[in-house]
Each structure stands twice: as structure tokens, then as C-alpha cells.
Amino acid sequence: MTQGPGITAFFPAYNDAGTIASMVVITHKTLEALTDDFEIIVVENGSTDYTADVLAELALRYERLRVLSYHQPLGYGGALRVGFAHATRELIFYTDGDAQYDPRELRVLLPAMRDDIDMVNGWKIDRHDPIIRIIIGRLYNQLVKQLFGLRLRDVDCDFRLIRRHVFDVITLESDSGTICLELVKKIQDAQFRVAEVPVRHYHRSYGKSQFFNFPRLWSTGLQLLHLWWKLVLRRDHIDAVSQRQKAHTATYRP
């Protein structure tokens, strides 16, 4: 092990029995090479396959692994909020438990987390998904960048390293997949500094996406409109963020 910043790595997991073990094992090995102060959290939310059994076995072998299981539906956003709330280290890394990103590329994110950076956001070099998902993903990315005035290259790349003090300033509310949009919008509005690095994206090897179906897309569209009304038209989060940001500036800025 080597001395380095404290890192929490966490994954939301829903029906990821075929991938979550490799994600935990690879992440553990990666973190051991980067720092002597780390923890791994998996937020398991009502899986109907054997994800919970796999995690129970892993928890017996890895003392730095914490498994948080919830039988009531949290939604993707709810699972992320739980992970952020339970993270205890200086830096928080998260990605999904479906292994479409390689946690070893945390090594790519960490050098970009300079003293003046608050979040390092990955962007997909190539998206390895069915063509319809690629098309919808590109349209979604362009749409939300225009609607919300976002400067990120890749809004929906769930491969991020974030300073924990960011969550002393911003408060997340979404329970659905729109939480990623809420996260990057509020980070931008709070004037936190963001770096972007390229990461690889892989074909899904187990299970299927919970997002790309018509009812979910329709629901997401309605949630996007609600978020746009709150964050762009009303901007009711700005005053609260401004006050919390002022309170933390002297402490966290180099």
C-alpha cells in the first residue's frame, strides 16, 4: 500500500450479480496501489437475482467493504444519494456496478484531481452499446447541455471522482437517473472546478439496462422538465448554494 488521499469508492447495484464481484475485487486492488486509506461501499437496492448473496460472500472476505442493502425501491438517484451520504473519505469515486466502466481507470482520474479541482468527470472515448442506445444517448447529451447550459463534454458518463466537501455545499434531491444531470448542474452553478478525462466504455456483459424502455424514457422526460423548471427557470437552489459556498471557500480553496 502507498500513502495517498483517502478515497471512498462506491457502486449502486441492482441485479448485477454477474459483475459486482469483479468490480469490488478490481477496485480493491486498484485502491491498494493508490492509497492506504480507502473504503468500498455497495448500495444494493432490491435485486431479484443473486446480487445480495454475492455481496454477502464478498463482505466476509474484504473488511474494507460495506454493503448497504435496501429492500424498498430507492431508484438510481436514491442509491447514489445513499452512497454519497455514507462516504467518509476525502475523495469519492463512483461508477455503476454493471462493469461498463473499468474501475482501474480511477488511476486516470486521480492525477487530474489537482488542488484547484473539485470534480474529475470522465468522458466516453467510444460508447459500446446497441445503436439505438447510442443514438438516444447522443441526443440526450446534446439536449440537456442546451437546456441546462452545461459545459461538460459528456453529461451522462457515470465515472466520477468528487471531493466530499462538494456535498457540504450542494444538496441532491432526485431519485431517478436525472440525479446525474442535477449533480453536474449544481456543481457548475456552485462554481466548483471540473476537469475531464477520457475513459473507456464496454459492452454490458450481464443483465440489461433499466433505463432504455418507453415508460422509463417518458418518466425521465417529465422529470427533466421538472428539473429544468427548478434549476434553470426558478434557480431556487442558487441562494442556498451561495451561502454554503461562502462558508466553505476559506477552508477548501488553495
Helix content: 40-55%
Named CATH architecture: Alpha-Beta Complex
> Count of helices?
9
Strand content bin: 15-25%
Taking strands numbered 1, 2, ... along the chain, how are they ordered across the largest sheet? 3-2-1-4-6-5-7
Question: What top-tier CATH class fits best?
Answer: Alpha Beta
CA gyration radius, whole angstroms: 18 Å
Q: How far apart are the termini?
A: 27 Å
Structural class: alpha/beta
The name CATH uses for the topology is Spore Coat Polysaccharide Biosynthesis Protein SpsA, Chain A
Low-confidence region ranges: none
- Tell me, briefly, the overall form: globular
Could you give the order of the helices and strands?
EHEHEHEHEHEHHEHH
| Fourth-tier CATH superfamily name | Spore Coat Polysaccharide Biosynthesis Protein SpsA, Chain A
Whole-number count of domains: 1
- Main pleated-sheet profile: 7 strands, mixed
Mean pLDDT: 88
Q: Count the E strands.
A: 7
Structural overview:
This protein is an alpha/beta fold. 45% of the residues lie in helices and 17% in strands. It has nine helices and seven strands, in the order E-H-E-H-E-H-E-H-E-H-E-H-H-E-H-H. The protein has helices at 20-34, 51-61, 75-86, 106-112, 131-148, 166-169, 179-189, 214-234, 238-252; strands at residues 7-13, 38-45, 65-70, 91-95, 119-124, 159-163, 194-199. The protein has a seven-stranded mixed sheet with strand order 3-2-1-4-6-5-7, with helices on both faces. Helix 2 (51-61) links the parallel strand 2 and strand 3.
